[in-house]
Amino acid sequence: MGDAATDSIFPPLSLTSLRLRDFRCFPTLSCALGGGITLFTGDNAQGKTSILEAVCVLLRLQSPRTSTGKELARFGTDGCGVAGTFDGHELTHTTRGAEKKLLIDGEPARRTADYLAASGLVVWMGNGDLELVSGTGDPRRRYLDFLGSQLFPEYRAALKAYEKALRQRNFLLKRDASPSWQEIDAYTAVLVPHGETLLRLRASLLEKLTPHAAAAHAAIRAADPGSATPEVLSLTWLPGGDSDHLSAQLLERRAEEARRRVTLCGPHRDDFLPALDGLPAGTFASEGQQRTIALALKLAQATLLHEARQQSPILLLDDIFGELDPHRRNALLAALPAGSQKLITTTHLGWLDTQPLDAQRYQVERGTIRPV
C-alpha cells in the first residue's frame, strides 16, 4: 500500500520524542523515537498499550480505550500530561480536573482546531478491531468519527455539538410522562443541522473508503497461498437519517418517540455493513476472514489519510502480530505505508523469526522503559 514516489513528494512527518507525567501507570516517562519502526516489548499489564494511547492522546486529543478521559491520570493523582516533539514543534497536552491546556512550542493554542492542525495523523490498530466486523454499530461509528475528525475541519465540532444536543433531547424525552415538545424542539433545532452535516460527511467517507478497503483486502488474501477462491469485500452504507430532511423525519416519528422516549433518527443510528461476496461478514465470515476485513478497514484509513491530507499517518499497532497467522502477518507488514512511522507493541518477538525488522526497541516493565 505504500508508495515510495508519493512519499518522496510528501516527506513523512514523525514524532521524535514522547514525555509523560502521571499518565496511566507511568509516574514519568521520556523516550526518543525514530522515524521508522519502534518496538515496545514486555509482558501484559506493564504499560505498553498506554504508551501508544499517550501518542494518540497527544496528537488527536482522544483515547482509543476510553471516551471520558478520566481514567488517564495515574491512580491517586488529579491530572496528567503528555508532551512530545512532532515535525520539529513541541506539543503539550495537560489535564487537571476539568481543566485542559494545549500548548504549541510553549504557547497556548487559541483553539483546539489550531492544535490539531499542528499535530500528526494517526491510525490505531488493535485486537479490538474485530468488533468492526462482528460488533454493533458503535465501533463502526467510532471508526468513521476517528477518521472524519482528521479529514474534515468541521467534523469534530459537528460531532460534539450533535452529541450534546442528543443527550439533552433524550433526557427530556425520558423525563416526563407527557413530553414537552416546545422544550424538545429547542434542542431539535440544534441537533438537525449538525446531524445533517455528519450524515453527509460519513456517507462521503464510506464512499472514499470502500475501494481502498477492497484493495487492501485483496492484497492480504493474495499473500495467503491457501486462499484459492477470490472474495470481494464490500461496504454498504446504512444511514440513520436523511441528510436533507432530518427535521421532517423527526417530526414524522414524534408519536413513536413519545412512546419509546428516545430519539429515533439521526447519525447516532448510522452504520455500515461489511460483506464478502454479498454476504454479511458479521454473520457468515469465519474469525480469520473477519480479522482480514478488520485489517483492511484500518489499512484503508491509512491510505485515505495519506491520499487526502498528503501526509503519512503514524501507525499505532497494539499487540496484533502475535494474533495473526504468518501469512496475514507478512501481508500486513508488506501492506503498511512505507513512509509511515510505526509504533508497535508485542509480548514476544517470536514472530520476527519469519519477518526480520530494522527497528528501535524498548523493554517495558512495571511502568518503566529501557532501550534494548
> What Rg is obtained from the alpha carbons, in whole angstroms?
22 Å
Note poorly predicted spans. Answer: 1-8
> Widest sheet: strand order?
2-1-4-5-6-7
Helical content class? 40-55%
Please tell me the CATH architecture by its name. 3-Layer(aba) Sandwich
CATH class: Alpha Beta
Helix count from the secondary structure assignment: 12
Q: What's the number of domains? A: 1
Largest sheet: 6 strands, antiparallel
What is the CATH homologous superfamily assignment? P-loop containing nucleotide triphosphate hydrolases
Instruction: Tell me the number of strands.
Output: 15
Order of helices and strands: HEEEHEEEEHEHHHHEHHEEHHEHEEE
The 3D shape can be described as globular
Structural class: alpha/beta
Arithmetic mean pLDDT: 91
What does this structure look like?
With 372 residues, this protein is α/β, with parallel strands linked by helices. The chain has a single domain, classed as Rossmann fold (3-Layer(aba) Sandwich). Helices cover 43% and strands 23% of the residues. The chain has 12 helices and 15 strands. It has a 6-stranded antiparallel sheet with strand order 2-1-4-5-6-7, covered by helices on one side. It is globular.
Feature tags:
12 helices, 6-stranded mixed β-sheet, 372 residues, single chain, 6-stranded antiparallel β-sheet
What is the structure about, briefly put?
The chain is α/β, with parallel strands linked by helices and 372 residues long.
Topology of helices and strands:
Blueprint: H1 4-9, E1 15-23, E2 26-32, E3 37-41, H2 48-60, E4 79-86, E5 89-96, E6 99-104, E7 107-108, H3 112-118, E8 122-126, H4 131-134, H5 137-151, H6 155-175, H7 181-222, E9 233-238, H8 246-252, H9 254-260, E10 271-276, E11 279-280, H10 281-284, H11 287-309, E12 314-318, H12 326-335, E13 342-346, E14 359-365, E15 368-371
Parallel strand pairs: 3-13, 3-14, 8-12, 12-13
Antiparallel strand pairs: 1-2, 1-4, 4-5, 5-6, 6-7, 9-10, 10-11, 14-15
Helix pairs in contact: 5-7, 6-7, 7-11, 7-12
